[in-house]
Amino acid sequence: MPVGRFSLRDLPPKIAAHVGRAARLTFPPQGQTSDVALAEQRGRAVVVKRCAHRVYIDWLRRERVVLEALAGSELPIPSLLAYADTEAKGVPVVWLVMTPLAGEPLLGALVRAT
User: For residue 27, which of 39, 18, 19 has the smallest C-alpha distance?
Assistant: First the structure.
């Protein structure tokens, strides 16, 4: 089961089409439910999420549904760019690409909270 960081070579074609072949991936501090990278190329950035953990995979699937449901609302939410439900070595793997939002990651805010 894939866990941790991934490379551009790991991206399914549907996801790679929104990232770019020469994108630079950085991996911010994150929780344990998905692998998350910020992909930047030529001044454009997208967020790539991958989940292969059987306990959390449905969370990423639901995140897609929520992003689609809230699209066009006045709420400050990321735009869903791509989604892929794949498999690696017999294990389901879900990928999601969305636009980034300005602000501080939740994990950082929680660590600093008193």
Answer: 39
